Amino acid sequence: MIDRNRLIRKSIHFFTGLAVFLLTFFVEKKLLFLLIMAGTVFAFATFNYRRFRLLHRTSDASLGTLFYPLGIVTSFLLLYKMPIQFFQISLLILTVSDTAANITGMVRPGNIYFQTFKEEKSLYGVLSFAVTALLIFLILLPVSYFDVHAYVVLPILLAITFELISYKGSDNFSIPVGSALFFLVLDRSESDLLFLTAVVVLSALTAFLLFRTGLLTKNAGVAVYFMGFYLLGVMGIAWTIPLLAFFVSSVVFTMINTAVRGKKAPANRRNAWQVLANSLWALMASAGWLIVREPMLIYVYISLVAAVTADTWSSEIGQVFHRRCFSLAHFRMKMSGISGGVSVAGTVAALVGSFAISLLAYHLFFPEPDLTVITLLTASGFLASFTDSLLGAFAEEKLGGAGLFKDHMAGWTEAMSPNDVVNLLGSLSAPLILIILWVVFM
Predict the structure, then answer these.
(1) Helix (H) or strand (E) holding 114
(2) How many angstroms separate the CA atoms of 301 and 392, rounded?
(3) Cβ-proximal residues to 269 (8 Å cutoff; 6+ apart), any chain
């Protein structure tokens, strides 16, 4: 049976998307941006009003009507300096292909259904998505790009991936934004596109292996997959290596800590919230640089990665060398491993970790070393790790038990813990500290 509410909601999305598409032919970009922003504000402002309930909510408690305008405005900003055809393609894949997938997915006779992230998908839906996306490319993509098949095949495959792994309407964001990120590297040569294809395969394989070996949950694996594609395929090697160095070193030191202390390997995999808690601000800084090309955002990125590295190295190495630590919350010695605990070895490890990432990342971005800047980056990451410890000591217990945001996202199997919130806030202090140090010493 066809879900009437769902059909109405998708119809609204369809005609709204077509309206924006038509405006791209008659309205200049600045005015178009203002109109899209007005629609985004309206969607968020009316989300909790009962009179707009049909517009926003269906029986599956979808957040799609929030993801929808957010995805459109984000893709528009990412593609602002590129020819309008690329935004039109991203918009129509969301508007037409996603709607076609939803409607054909309701057809029952002969359809094959399968489960992805607790959401049912169908063979008819996937096929209709692929066919309509291909037609959109055939109509809108400049003829010169068809000589390079990867320009057509790869973004369609990526868009299909976004559709398959969507949950609670998240594809309304991931489809246009993912397509936009791909188009940012669309002017590369054929060899670069072959490399990008290899990046997609490598990222997917890495995420799958991390999931199969028990290091990541399924959702975390998906997050790592998109991070790998975004960092290596869109941003480049200089942006990838610092976060990769952080992740690899954190896994290694966790294994050493586990072995030395004679404990069993942790039963809980790292979930998507834990991955994002250590990388979200850095990813946002890189996205900001992609849009405005402000060099200071490179320093912000380095300081953020240095901060999470310092915090992780301090936590893991401190426990290897010390059975007890000094509790900032209780002002006396406690068993190591508690939130807000500091130790000599942990402090040294935090300083070394922040310096190692700062030196490595600065060398990747800039040809000539600047010891003053590297020192400021090291100090910002190191001091941010202490901010994390202070938050862990005085704020983590007040945040309550694990499960933040779980109640607001029905069916979401992974919850943000108080420690994840502390890590987010603690690492965010790194660029603030860096700016203060920069004003004083530069």
Answers:
(1) strand 113-116
(2) 23
(3) 211, 214, 215, 216, 217, 220
Please determine, for residue 14, whether its predicted confidence score (pLDDT) is greater than 50: yes
Q: Which two tokens stand for residue 417?
A: 């813990």
Lowest mean pLDDT among 238-247, 312-321, 369-378: 312-321
Q: Where are the domains of the chain?
A: 1-186, 241-442
CA neighbor of 278 nearest in space, from 313, 255, 314, 312? 312
- pLDDT, one tens digit per residue, over 126-161 is 788 888 888 888 888 776 665 555 556 666 666 666
**Helix, coil or strand: residue 47:** coil
Sheet of 341-342, strands arranged across? 332-335, 324-327, 341-342
Would you tell me how many other CB atoms lie within 10 Å of the CB of residue 326? Answer: 17
Are the C-beta atoms of residues 427 and 304 closer than 8 Å to each other? yes
Our CA dihedral for 336, 341, 345, 348, rounded to 10 degrees, sits at 160
- E strands, 308-349, are 324-327, 332-335, 341-342
The set of residues, in sequence order, having a beta carbon less than 8 Å from that of 30 and lying 6+ positions away, is: none
Mean pLDDT of the chain: 77
pLDDT digit string, tens, across residues 222-244? 788 888 888 887 788 999 999 99
Q: Give the Cα separation of 268 and 353 in Å (integer).
A: 25
| Backbone phi, psi, residue 119, to 5° | -130, 135
Region of residue 114 (left: phi > 0; alpha: psi -120 to 50; beta: else): beta
DSSP tag of 414: -
CA 246 to chain centre: 16
* Burial readout 101-114 (b: 16 or more C-beta within 10 A, e: otherwise): bbbbbbeeeeeeee
pLDDT above 70: percentage of residues in the chain: 69
Query: Residue 298 corresponds to which amino acid?
Result: I
pLDDT of residue 49: 66
Tens-digit pLDDT profile for residues 54-93: 565 554 445 667 788 888 988 898 888 888 988 999 999 8
Distance CA 327, CA 318 (A): 13
Q: Say how many CA atoms lie within 13 Å of 98 toward its Cβ.
A: 34
